[in-house]
Inverse folding.
């Protein structure tokens, strides 16, 4: 009031002055030392104004500095692409029917398109993670302020964080999720990239990216994969409480794991999601209450059995997968990257049969430690349809015995290194005379011996092969020459690191893959196809790379036919692979046994490696059996036919739905009746009998005269018994 009175007096004096313009205006009396109140008020106003201006200036400077820091950090932000956001599917391997057989990633993820995600799940995720998701542009100032207040108060339905769904997606896509990495710089970059993502993608796309990106525990990423893993159903088939559980799990998959003994945390989280959905308006309170009454275990699969089944399935295809990975790597693909789809030539039915026979009791393996390696191919294109890496193996991606090249082939090499080249380059007929008499390896004092320590004198090449006599094989390799033999082997995909000779004639290191490929060339009439596992690869960008193998002529059709015909006699009663007999089936093959040296202190006739490689016109199967460590055991003589027994069961099963057709004699071959069986020779070809007398075969022929289409002059004779 003092202030008002003072200024009222001034006004009155001023009025007086106005009425008497000739008179000076009166002077107010002095304050007499009293407080100068108006001046004091003006001083406080100046101070307040000054402080305000300074605060405004500092705020402006701070804002500019903050903006400068923000844009500096933003400028250093990494690039983010659609592929970063989209969470490619886990790399996987498929069989020849397109069925998945192996996931390559440590984290499983099957990508869900937007139409595979039910509206209820989308609403659940938005309700619990970002209720203003459809209103903000990537960064939500209201959410940040609310989160700060909620953190002080201690509760906000799980909304304590200030990050939007878009920011969370950015973090999952290009940044570390470690708490230690949540710096101011990282948060600024996260916000900047979130703004960019919102400008380039729709809300539905962003939500779909997020729901495919999140980790759900148990090595599973993405809610579609989690639905299949936990419930064995697609997302669209899940109930409200099940969807609510999935929506809440990404915040802490370990704590909210429904398979824990104590599922109270999982239930609380699910119920929190349901309440959030009520608040969001997605469901009614009654729906939420009904859903909260459902046990958390409702619909969950037994993952113990599921895991055991998955591990057993992985064991079944273990060796095949190893070969696939090696082939893909050789093609230049990085199989550790996500998004690869590798389609193979695997016949899962045959693979399972081979695995069961290797690990079951149908084949009498001498002991638990006896190992096996086996490769089965289609001889008409080289496709590997099945492969067994071993038996009783507990370590995945361990030793693949099918690919090992350090074990001697034994006599299974003879058609490839000795007699095949002799027919190809020297035109030897099947009845060409060879000697089975006492003989030393060329240039040495070491005798060539057979298992029985006996000799059969002069015999035909057919008899020598079917009875697997060693001395004739050494003679054949010596006659054809190491250079020609190596050339012939090269045509069969087997590159030798030396010129073969001597003991190589009766055994050299090979793998079942190599033998399957080589014998496959004989089976199809002389064309070699490299054994292959992969039919096509689809990369993450959708590009398809198709693969097939072009065959190369490895031998004349006459050579292939004559070798096949001779090897039919191997699978006959009393022959070297009698246990491979499948009544009525047209097939051929060759066995091989490898013994121990004198200094290895093993029982008489103990076997180190046992082989059998056989074929029809539809399949080739090469089988090796032995031990990783011979201190664990050996194959007794009574089990020498172990590979043939395994072959017999596999081939019997495989040929059930295949045509049983015989090989036709090419027009470059001429039949000749020798005694009471049919022999063959290359038409109009000259050949040298080596000055040896012509002999009559005593071995079972692949064909009798009537089977060869020749009037039967005599019945076929039985072979003499013998083993290699």
């Amino acid at each position: 009031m003092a202030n008002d009175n003072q200024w009222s007096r001034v006004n009155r004096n001023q009025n007086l002055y106005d009425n008497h313009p000739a008179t000076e205006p009166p002077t107010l009396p002095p304050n007499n030392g009293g407080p100068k109140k108006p001046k004091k008020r003006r001083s406080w106003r100046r101070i307040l104004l000054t402080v305000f201006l300074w605060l405004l200036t500092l705020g402006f400077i701070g804002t500019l500095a903050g903006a400068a820091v923000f844009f500096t950090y933003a400028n250093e932000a990494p690039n983010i692409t659609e592929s970063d956001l989209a969470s490619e599917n886990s790399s996987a391997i498929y069989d020849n029917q397109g069925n998945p057989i192996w996931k390559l990633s440590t984290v499983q993820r099957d990508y869900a398109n937007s139409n595979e995600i039910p509206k209820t799940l989308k609403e659940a995720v938005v309700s619990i993670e970002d209720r203003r998701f459809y209103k903000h542009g990537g960064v939500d100032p209201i959410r940040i302020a609310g989160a700060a207040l909620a953190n002080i108060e201690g509760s906000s339905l799980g909304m304590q964080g200030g990050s939007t769904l878009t920011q969370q997606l950015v973090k999952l896509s290009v940044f570390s999720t470690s708490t230690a990495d949540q710096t101011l710089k990282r948060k600024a970059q996260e916000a900047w990239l979130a703004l960019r993502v919102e400008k380039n993608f729709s809300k539905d796309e962003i939500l779909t990216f997020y729901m495919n990106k999140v980790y759900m525990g148990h090595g599973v990423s993405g809610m579609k994969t989690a639905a299949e893993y936990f419930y064995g159903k697609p997302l669209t088939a899940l109930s409200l409480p099940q969807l609510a559980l999935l929506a809440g799990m990404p915040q802490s998959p370990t704590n909210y794991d429904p398979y824990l003994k104590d599922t109270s945390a999982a239930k609380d989280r699910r119920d929190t999601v349901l309440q959030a959905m009520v608040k969001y308006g997605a469901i009614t309170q009654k729906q939420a209450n009904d859903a909260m009454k459902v046990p958390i275990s409702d619909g969950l699969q037994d993952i113990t059995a599921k895991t055991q089944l998955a591990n057993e399935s992985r064991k079944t295809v273990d060796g095949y997968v190893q070969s696939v990975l090696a082939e893909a790597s050789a093609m230049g693909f990085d199989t550790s990257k996500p998004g690869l789809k590798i389609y193979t030539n695997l016949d899962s039915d045959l693979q399972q049969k081979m695995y069961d026979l290797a690990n079951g009791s149908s084949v009498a393996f001498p002991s638990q430690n006896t190992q096996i390696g086996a490769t089965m191919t289609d001889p008409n294109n080289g496709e590997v349809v099945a492969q067994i890496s071993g038996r009783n193996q507990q370590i995945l991606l361990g030793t693949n015995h099918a690919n090992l090249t350090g074990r001697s082939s034994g006599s299974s090499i003879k058609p490839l290194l000795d007699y095949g080249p002799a027919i190809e380059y020297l035109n030897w007929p099947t009845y060409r005379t060879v000697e089975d008499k006492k003989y030393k390896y060329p240039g040495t004092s070491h005798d060539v011996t057979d298992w029985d320590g006996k000799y059969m004198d002069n015999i035909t090449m057919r008899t020598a092969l079917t009875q697997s006599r060693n001395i004739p094989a050494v003679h054949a390799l010596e006659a054809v020459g190491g250079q020609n033999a190596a050339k012939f082997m090269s045509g069969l995909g087997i590159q030798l690191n030396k010129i073969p000779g001597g003991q190589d004639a009766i055994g050299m290191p090979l793998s079942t893959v190599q033998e399957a490929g080589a014998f496959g060339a004989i089976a199809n009439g002389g064309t070699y196809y490299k054994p292959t596992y992969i039919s096509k690869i689809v990369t993450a960008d959708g590009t398809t790379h198709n693969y097939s193998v072009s065959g190369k002529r490895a031998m004349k059709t006459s050579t292939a036919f004559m070798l096949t015909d001779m090897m039919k006699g191997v699978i006959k009663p009393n022959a070297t692979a009698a246990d491979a007999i499948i009544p009525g089936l047209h097939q051929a093959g060759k066995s091989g046994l490898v013994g121990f040296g004198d200094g290895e202190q093993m029982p008489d006739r103990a076997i180190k490696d046992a082989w059998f490689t056989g074929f029809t016109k539809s399949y080739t199967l090469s089988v090796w059996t032995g031990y990783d460590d011979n201190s664990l055991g050996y194959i007794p003589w009574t089990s020498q036919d172990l590979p043939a027994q395994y072959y017999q069961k596999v081939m019997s099963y495989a040929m059930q739905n295949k045509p049983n057709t015989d090989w036709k004699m090419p027009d470059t071959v001429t039949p000749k009746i020798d005694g009471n069986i049919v022999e063959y020779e290359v038409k109009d070809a000259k050949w040298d009998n080596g000055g040896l007398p012509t002999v009559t075969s005593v071995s079972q022929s692949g064909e009798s005269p009537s089977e060869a289409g020749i009037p039967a002059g005599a019945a076929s004779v039985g072979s003499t018994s013998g083993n290699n």
